[in-house]
Write a structure and sequence with these properties.
single chain, about 60 residues, alpha+beta, 1 helix, about 40% helix
Length: about 60
């Protein structure tokens, strides 16, 4: 990782904060991680609830296959 300073924090195995930083830096990183995780969760939920249904329509009658 090439850590050169302490303290050193890694968030979500993607974002790193090195050295003593203001609280705003930590807040920004945590908000970004939160947003990314929620986007991934929503995408997984959409994927899990998606169903593939085929309809075969003949005239006015539709049959679900």
């Amino acid at each position: 990782m090439g850590v050169q300073g302490v303290p050193f924090f890694v968030f979500n195995e993607k974002y790193a904060v090195s050295g003593a930083q203001p609280i705003e830096v930590f807040s920004e990183v945590l908000e970004r991680v939160w947003e990314e995780e929620n986007e991934q969760s929503r995408g997984q939920i959409r994927e899990e609830t998606r169903t593939e249904t085929t309809y075969c329509c003949e005239g006015e009658t539709c049959n679900k296959e």
